[in-house]
């Protein structure tokens, strides 16, 4: 059976660091409000570049069919999303007079995936989707705010800049870029 719905593309997952502690230490209504505001901020900062497959608690599963992804374009978009997230955390902390100890990590990977429909839901399917979720649970990152670009993404982009400032190269996985270090060099 041949599936014509299989395409190359990018999987992007922004995910909150500190979410479990946040949920247990924040009143239900307040926590729900904060998470809704932060997820909405990420969706707005995306500027409709990526499609949304689903929202999973504190993470968004974004995708984009794209045979030739641009590292520079994705990096710029992620810096904008990170900035918008940080500004919203600051704003909400002031408005609600509470500390919001959440940071943001991104997983960016590339490969073949398909989409299927169950009722009103569209679901992504493929090894690359599983890989993206596995990369969320990594022990590589030493700082909370980062982007992990998988080797599959880096191998399929023609404009990757290997700048060791703010980057950690992991041969079996890809490259981690820390936002704090990128700020110093941008």
UniProtKB/TrEMBL annotation:
InterPro entries: Uncharacterised_Rv2561. This is DUF2652 domain-containing protein. It comes from Chryseobacterium ginsengisoli.
